[in-house]
Write a structure and sequence with these properties.
There is one protein chain. With 108 residues, this protein is of the alpha+beta class. The chain has two helices and four strands. It has a four-stranded antiparallel sheet.
Length: 108
């Protein structure tokens, strides 16, 4: 089942999605200061995003929508390819460990 987020029609739609990769990090969450609210008048209306620089970080940052830089298709391809290669290497290590434990026999 895929989660659904309802956004009031009078709010603008967010530019970035949850878990989207950007030059500033990965989108963990977002919230809106809609027009006509006190926070919007004090801090400018619009979407704010919570980002983590990378998956191994415990730091987070809060940026306005116009402060976030999207990745180019090539940058996104490079990041995803590197992550795939990392996990393929991890799988290879685990398969070697499993072969040692089972004496080379697996249920595969």
């Amino acid at each position: 089942m895929q989660a659904t987020i309802s956004i009031p029609q009078h709010w603008g739609y967010p530019r970035f999605a949850l878990d989207q990769r950007t030059k500033d990090g990965i989108i963990l969450g977002f919230y809106c200061y809609p027009n006509g609210r006190e926070l919007a008048e004090q801090f400018d209306e619009g979407w704010r995003y919570v980002l983590m620089p990378n998956k191994n970080s415990d730091e987070i940052s809060y940026l306005q929508e116009n402060q976030i830089q999207p990745l180019s298709p090539q940058e996104l391809f490079t990041q995803i390819t590197a992550e795939i290669e990392f996990y393929q290497h991890q799988i290879s290590i685990l398969e070697q460990q499993l072969a040692v434990v089972t004496g080379g026999f697996t249920n595969a």
